[in-house]
Amino acid sequence: MELQSEKIDLIVPSLIAARGVFKAAVKDAKNAAFKRPDGKVSTYTTLDSAIEAVNEALLTNGIYYTQQTDIGERGIVLHTRFLHTSGQWIGSTYPVHPVKNDPQGEGSALTYARRYALMALAGIAPEDDDGNAATKAAERDNTADDAAAQEWVDALTGADSLAALDSLAKELATSGLSAAGKTKARAAYSAAKHKLAKAA
Question: What's the number of domains the chain is made of?
Fold first, then answer.
């Protein structure tokens, strides 16, 4: 079974561009039948979440994905392909193993195969909501710290005397600014002190 077109020189750059803006495949559903070691209900990524994570980025970069089933020697197989506007493509084959040999069992197994085959080909992994929230919180904290550091830089740069500058430096030492923020502010202090000393 071929897993890519003869040439992939045009689809690869598009895939790299798409990969850079894929969203998180959030675990957006709960499985009450399973619990984690901490006692919480197990969560998983639905097919909708997996599609939402990659579809927009793929289409923006000229790539359409398709998933088709076939009957192989060992049963049902799922073929997933990323098709580029150039005609080039890459793909994968994933076995479908129903727990029960009835329409519901086959449907569940196919949905399972579709989401994991899509995520595997896209190179993404499921992400917990908690982890996603923590990441966003950290990003907000970093943004706030950068803003606070810039305020200190502006204040130190705007000091009109060495006495005022030294007073600000003492306040900076006891402030709640992060180490990185203080390093940035101290650089501004040194530059401002040199400028004021030269002007005196």
Answer: 2
- What are the E-state strand segments in the chain? 25-26, 29-35, 41-44, 63-72, 75-84, 89-95, 126-127
Q: Specify the pTM.
A: 0.60
pLDDT tens, position by position, 43-53? 788 999 999 99
87-138 pLDDT, tens digit each: 999 999 999 988 888 888 888 899 999 999 999 999 998 875 444 444 554 5
Q: How far apart are CA 61 and CA 162, in angstroms?
A: 56
Residues forming beta bridges with residue 72, ordered by sequence position: 75
86 and 117 fall within a common domain: yes
User: Could you give the count of Cα atoms lying within 13 Å of 1 in the half-sphere of its Cβ?
Assistant: 14
Phi, psi angle pair for 175, to nearest 5°:
-75, 165
Contacts of 21 (CB under 8 A, 6+ apart): 57, 60
